[in-house]
Amino acid sequence: MKYYDKLIFELSKEGRKGYSLPKNQFPQSPELPLQLRRASALPLPEVSEPDVVRHYNNLSQMNFGVDTGFYPLGSCTMKYNPKINEEMAALPGFNALHPLQDAPAAEKVLAHMNDLLSAITGMHKFTFAPCAGAHGELTGLMIMRSYHIGRGDLGRTKVIVPDSAHGTNPASAAVCGLEVVQVKSLENGRIDIEALKPLLDSSVAGIMMTNPNTLGLFETEIKTIAKLVHEAGGLLYYDGANMNPLMGVVRPGNMGFDIMHLNLHKTFSTPHGGGGPGSGPVGVAKHLEHCLDGLKVSGFHGNFGVILRAYAYILSIGRENLRKVGQYSVLSANYIKESLKDLYKLPIEGVCKHEFVFDGLLNDGAHDDVPGATTLDVAKRLLDYGFHAPTIYFPLLFHQAIMIEPTETESKETLDAFIAVMRQIAAEAAQNPELLHAAPHNAPISRPDETAAARNPILKWQDTLPA
Amino acid sequence: MSKILEGLKYSESHEWVKVEGNVALVGVSDYAQKEMGDITYVDLPEEGDDVIAGEEFGALESVKAASDLISPVSGVVVAVNAALEDTPEAVNEDAYAAWIIKVEMSNPADLDALMDAAAYKAYIKE
Amino acid sequence: MAAYLPHTEADIRAMLEKVGLKTLEDLYSDVPQEFLHRGEYDLPEALSEQELREWLQGLDAQTPRLKVFVGQGAYDHYTPAVIPYLTQRSEFITAYTPYQCEISQGTLRYIFEYQSLICALTGLDVSNASLYDGPTAAAEAMMMAVECTRRKTRVLLSATLLPHVVKVVQTYAKFHGVEIGLLPADGGETSLAALQAELAKDDVAGVIVPSVNRYGIVEDHSGFAEAIHAEKGLLVEYCDPSALAVVKTPAEWEADIAVGDAQPLGIPLCYGGPYVGFMAVRKDHMRKMPGRIIGQTADASGRRAFVLTLQAREQHIKREKATSNICSNESLMALWVTIYLSLMGPDGLREVNNLSSDGAHYLYGELLKTGLFEEVFPGKPFLKEFVLKSRVSGLQEKLAKAGFFAALPTEEGYVSFCVTEKRSKADIDALVAAIKEG
Questions:
Q1: Which residue of C has its CA nearest to A411?
Q2: Contacts of A92 in chain C (CB under 8 A)
Q3: Do residues A215 and A102 share a domain?
Q4: CB distance A88–C84 less than 8 Å?
Q5: Which residue from A356, A325, A405, A377 is spatially nearest to A71, judged by alpha carbons?
Q6: Any chain A CB within 8 A of the CB of C342?
Q7: Residue A387, pLDDT above cutoff 90
Q8: Which CATH number applies to B11-105: 2.40.50.100, 2.60.120.1520, 3.40.440.10, 3.90.580.10?
Q9: Measuring CA to CA, how many Å separate A19 from each of C179, C352, C424, C425?
């Protein structure tokens, strides 16, 4: 990767054009009344097509992607994005289809997807409107509230969230007008059922869980949890961020979950696109089907282009390979864990699912007399070796959390190379911690000054110009 | 080792109070600013807002964290240190000079629930 | 499918041995037996790549190819070839969110450019890194208005906003606990008199009005900001960003927040998504704005660098106290828009508006000439979209048979038309001929 320091605005030259539009064959339409017309200048760049192509190619070369290298990013399921799916999503009939048009084939895709996702998850019916995982959570919670309100059960305003949950869970609950109640985890990383029991009163709308949880551990008491929550009149919401290890092995619907979302951009291989577009379809059990009626959470039919890619993926996997997705993702995570736990702190022993969490290096730099390095240092040093960093400082249960999720699409050779580098970094932390503190050394930039960025926000090109 | 000023009152959520007549100056302790790291923004209330002892009146932000400011006393905000909007680093530089709000106290007995310097020193156990 | 799974039998054996297990099933020994799915999943057998291609091409072929003469929130503007070419680059499309900024400067830079372009179009101070789509951006603005004004609890929506925008905002408001009031239209535009009457109730946190509305009319918001600001509420302009090249900007209307869908900036229709919502605000509201924000700073050696900034507003830090639950953006679509605006420049974007508007006015005139239509809002200024009353029943279905998607019936009983620069004079003449033939 090489450093490139232009912004498109800095390539601009007055009078240069990068567009090609048809000749105007029409009589001129009446001008807008003066008071409705834009009076201010329109400071868009003026650049040629080759300028644009080179500029964005240069920008792309400062980026790391799944196609560049291994992305052990916990909770993000950075699996390979099949290329045929891109081609299929660009098919001209679908691509040029107006959302308000009659579209039998597009509806067929959505109906088929509904059946496929229902078969995989054990849910009854999906809505495809949510555009991301967090959007799915919000939609799911709206369904949860609608269900209670529809039964005249108006006092259910609380939602229980484990302390290990993704930050979006409590935020989604708050946006949905629900109060968040945290339930703490046991030493073994699972929900504390004794702490849960007293929370389950008639004000509880439901519980949001992911299983396996954010530590990559299966909630072994899920049957009891489901029974307790249901007995208290609440519903169970399944955060599908961690669905990958259950593919072909366990269906959330069978564990007692009433509502769930899936992240098509995680489990179903659609590309993350640098942060979106994603797709977060929400599935419900049969007794909640009516709550989907009239629930309008996005403009049209959701991110159809993303749904098409995921559809292509499921058809490629098929019945006979589904289980391999789950099993191999779990095998790979356990393989890395067992290969590194002598150098990194493993707070909870035992078989993990698709991901696991280390609590930093054994030599974590916290003791002045023993050289070491923090999780941030380890993450930044990994970049020098051509790997993306794992998820760090999450979940919040541990101070030096390093959360690793390899996915099933990485070969043993890649995992071995990663393990070797993680061991090398542990050795460097002991011998030459300064090397880690100053990492990365080979990236296009070194660590930026984030404090300055937040204290004096420069948020657009115009802010960089002299006043 | 964090600085603790004699003559101030301290809360368990690490705010300090300096009493001037019926007005309380409120800031955060040196210990709190160290825990936060580089402060990038101080979310201030408005003059005239009511504050309640034990409830939040604003927040401190750093790059990776946000921490609520809890009012040690009840009353009305009579002044806010607007300079902190542009220079949040003042809290890092001298936490005791960088008062955040001045509160006209409605219940000066709130002060009795706060710690003095010695008790606060024991509380943070450095 | 095997193509995506690199595990050989030998690999699996070696890895199982390392973790001290005998079989793959042992990896799930902690899962209660009753939850392990027995038997086959109800899925089709795996398709080869060629079979998959043929299946989807078959479905695609069943989609009628109609010339699109409808907008209503999704506009058939031309996509320059450069955009799909560049956005398909592996380093852009297969990247995750730019958490590791040192190896994400490409993404961070183009989002910074995107923010700059949105500010250039709207005239406002600060843009976020993008939201899901226009309607959800409007919903976020609704929640933000309540957050910014505190104590005020009601948000007014103009009845002239696109129907899907109204519905999504109403859905969010219902669950978030915000009361919504609908401002009736007067002569096809948001009514200032109705606005003033509502503002007098002293509970209005914000007002959302369309810059160009559901009838295609370019609205006159003279006096709106003054009236709303006098009551300490926020003015939110819902905009078509393409039209902002020629119509008065949110900043010029003295709006506090601008939102909308950036789909008209060259994003394909694709049955409704992925699109991209945008939001820009005045600087005083920056810290209440939802979504990611990219800022400029320097690295250790002083080189210009870009980072995610002002993150303390966001859900991963504030959790239930965050303004919004959004934790991503529509990054690749923001790149799409950024490249589009770079290619078009100020002249190209104005020309797109001219071509669309001239074509739409030509169609408007030709339709009236047929004697089959009646004007609804005579004399009201419009650009690419308009409504008429039709004397022909079932017009949309008839035109679909002739190869056109046009004359979409509206809730009010009008028919809606839209013309973009992709429709030639010959296309329009053919549409009018088809209508005449009935």
A1: C6
A2: 60, 65
A3: yes
A4: no
A5: A405
A6: yes
A7: yes
A8: 2.40.50.100
A9: 45, 10, 18, 20
Residues C309, C380 within the same domain = no
* Joined tokens for residue B80: 């806010």
Residues A337, A405, single domain; the answer is yes
- Give the sign of the dihedral formed by CA C218, CA C219, CA C220, CA C224: negative
Note whether C327 and C373 are same-domain residues.
Answer: no
Whether chain A has a CB inside 8 Å of the CB on C302: the answer is no
Q: Do C27 and A81 touch (CB under 8 A)?
A: no
Strand duo C373-375 + B75-80: pairing: unpaired
Q: Closest partner residue to C318 among B40, B41, B66, by Cβ?
A: B66
Find the CATH number of the domain harbouring C387: 3.90.1150.10
Listed range (C29-38, C149-158, C256-265) with the worst mean pLDDT: C149-158
Residues A404 and A74: beta-carbon distance below 8 Å:
yes
Contact A52, C339 (CB under 8 A): yes
Q: Where are the beta strands (DSSP E) in C192-342?
A: 204-210, 234-239, 257-261, 277-281, 294-298, 304-308
Longest dimension (CA), chain A: 82
Taking residue C88's Cβ as centre, other Cβ atoms within 10 Å add up to 15
Asked whether the beta carbons of residue B65 and residue C287 sit closer than 8 angstroms, the reply is no
pLDDT band at B126 (very low <50, low <70, confident <90, very high): low
* pLDDT for the residue C325: 87
Distance (Å, whole) CA B83 – CA A308: 53
Residues of chain A contacting B62 with CB distance shorter than 8 Å? 451, 454
How many angstroms away from the CA of C67 is the closest CA of chain A?
9
B45, B51 in Cβ contact below 8 A? Answer: yes
Domain that holds residue C74: 67-78+346-437
| C352 shares a domain with C423 | yes
Interval C329-353: pLDDT, tens: 999 999 999 999 999 999 999 999 9
Q: Tell me: the pLDDT tens digits for B9-64?
A: 999 999 999 999 999 999 999 999 998 899 999 999 999 999 999 999 999 998 87
Residues 178-207 of C with CB under 8 A from A: none
Number of CB pairs, chain A paired with chain B, less than 8 A apart: 16
- Residues in chain A with CB shorter than 8 Å from the CB of B63 are 450-451, 454
Q: Do C296 and C362 belong together in one domain?
A: no
* Neighboring chain B residues of A450 at a CB cutoff of 8 Å: 63
